Every structure is written in structure tokens, then in C-alpha cells.
Amino acid sequence: MQIQSATFETSAPDLEHCPGSDLPEFAFIGRSNVGKSSLINCLTNKKDLAVVSSKPGRTRMINFFLINRKWSLVDLPGYGYAKASGHQRGKFNEFVSDYLINRPNLSCVFVLIDSRLEPQRLDLEFTAWLVEYGVPFVLVFTKTDKVKPGAVTRCIEAFTHEMSEFCDGLPRVYQCSAKTSNGRKDILNFISEAIAMSK
Ligand code: GDP
Q1: CB 111 within 8 A of CB 123
Q2: Rounded CA gap, 89 and 70, in Å?
Q3: Which residue's alpha carbon is nearest to atom 24 within ligand 1?
Q4: What is the pLDDT of residues 91-145, one digit of tens each?
Q5: Nearest-CA residue for atom 27 of ligand 1
Q6: Contact at 8 Å (CB) between 23 and 195?
Q7: pTM, rounded to two decimals
Q8: 183 Cβ below 6 A of ligand 1
Q9: Measured in angstroms, how far is the CA atom of residue 64 from the centroid of ligand 1?
Q10: In this structure, which residue's CA is closest to atom 9 in ligand 1?
């Protein structure tokens, strides 16, 4: 997919205020610092598209970008559990969970995972929650230029192994580096295919 246009559309504080649209939507989420803004800028070939999402007042919002006038890229706030203890699974931002469960035109969620880290509890809890609610998602392991290829593979294996505890069939997995653009084409191809299938 060639990116012809990528523009900021709007920010919404909750599902009710999300723009009425029947364009396929692809949402990006991950722990803060995982490389979400960098990946969004890399995918769209815009140096500072995702900066919009980090402007005061927008970091806690659902931010919408219109791509090629054909699909929406949605920048979701990082996971923020109110109290991330024991039985708090599923209690992350209510408005984000509401969006993920109830947005009719949501095609797929890209869950970003830092490929330098051991499986993180918060990431596993979030993917378990997506599985529980039947929200379609793929995993994207970020910052692959920072680790050796073998280490990325081990990181993916460790994460998907943990996931197999609560998930029958594993999700698709992508790797990316915003620095080298590794994985960019694969992710855009996946989006193209998903759009074609939604027609
Ligand atoms: P966000 O908080 O998830 O939006 O993360 P950012 O995109 O702001 O990235 C956090 C930090 O990681 C910044 O210093 C980025 O320059 C760096 N970073 C993000 N992606 C990559 C990557 O693919 N490779 C490298 N080497 N650094 C990255």
C-alpha cells in the first residue's frame, strides 16, 4: 500500500464521541514508550503525525487519523490500569475497553510489544482480555533494530508461549523497527488485505 494522504481527523474522550464512520479502523495500543508514535509515523511516512496525540489534553483521548481517505488509524492511550493488582484484570481505561468491544467498524488492534523485554504482565493481561472479549488483534514486536535477530525470535516465542495458556490458536505476529522501517510493508500489506476482505 502506498500512503497518499494521512491527516489528523479528531480526538474523542469516549466511544460516544467517536466520529460516525463506516471506514475500516485499525487501532494501535501498547505500554508507554513501546514505540507507538514512532511506528505510526513510520507507517504513514509522516515525521510527526503522532505528535498530535501527545499534545496536552489528547494523551487520554482516542485519536483518529484518516489514511488515503479509505481507512482510519486510531491511536489509543497506553494501558492504564486504575489499580493493577491481583484480580483487576480488565479494569484498564473504561473508555478504551468500551471502544475496543463496541466499535462496529474496528477491523483489528495492533498490540505493540517491546522486543527487548521479557514477557510483561501488563501486555499478557491485556492480550488475555482481548481474547476473552473476542477483539481481533495482531502482535507487533517493536524496536527490532535494538536487538539481535535471534533475540527477537526468542522474545516472540517466550511471549506466545505465555499466551498459549489462555489462547487456542495464536495471533499473527509482526516485527518492526521505526528506525530501519523493517516490517513496515508487512503491516501495510496486512491492512490492505483486511480492508479488501471487509468489502
Ligand atoms: P510511545 O510512547 O509508545 O509513543 O513511544 P515513542 O514512539 O515515543 O518511542 C519511545 C522511544 O523509543 C523514543 O526515544 C524513540 O525514538 C524510541 N524508538 C521508538 N521506536 C524505535 C525503533 O524502532 N528503534 C529504535 N532504535 N528506537 C525506537
Answers
A1: yes
A2: 35
A3: 143
A4: 567 889 999 999 999 999 999 999 999 999 999 999 999 999 999 999 999 999 9
A5: 143
A6: no
A7: 0.94
A8: no
A9: 20
A10: 35
